[in-house]
Amino acid sequence: MTESTGELPRLELRRIDRENLYAVCALSETLSVEQRPMVIDNSVSIAEAHFSDCLWYRAVYADDVPAGFLMVHLGLDEDHPELRGVFLWRFMVAAPAQGRGIGRAVLGLLVDRLTAQGVRELYTSYATGPGTPAGFYRALGFEPTGRILDGEHEVVLRW
Length: 159
Prior knowledge:
Blueprint (H helix, E strand, L loop, with lengths): L10 E4 L6 H6 L15 H8 L5 E8 L2 E9 L13 E7 L8 H15 L4 E6 L7 H6 L3 E7 L2 E7 L1
Organism: Nocardia brasiliensis
Protein name: GNAT family N-acetyltransferase
InterPro entries: Acyl_CoA_acyltransferase, GNAT_dom
């Protein structure tokens, strides 16, 4: 993980609507060749969210500029019985915004939101190989659960 340099931008988690949809979808194209296979396109994630009552998703804005995307599965449902609890299903920070501490700060915002709702743990998973976010999650305190979900290593953050 690249260390943050300089002051952190003002961050917001905004709803995705017709005004910002294309900008948020275009963020996927900014990822490196190594990162692209690790992250499903934002357009696919947004489409999937429209077919589930258990998905909460937002655009990440840094100083009023689209800079990322996150999608959280809010709990067990009949379509995904393998998920044990709140699950960070999709998370990406656009390449131009990487290395500025945005990813860490956004996950802090998410943890604050979940804490206010009585949640005390967050699961996610990642693939291995070039471009893997394993080090990023490890640095934030996520720990392996020992489970493999669809070929990805599951980790959990407890607070």
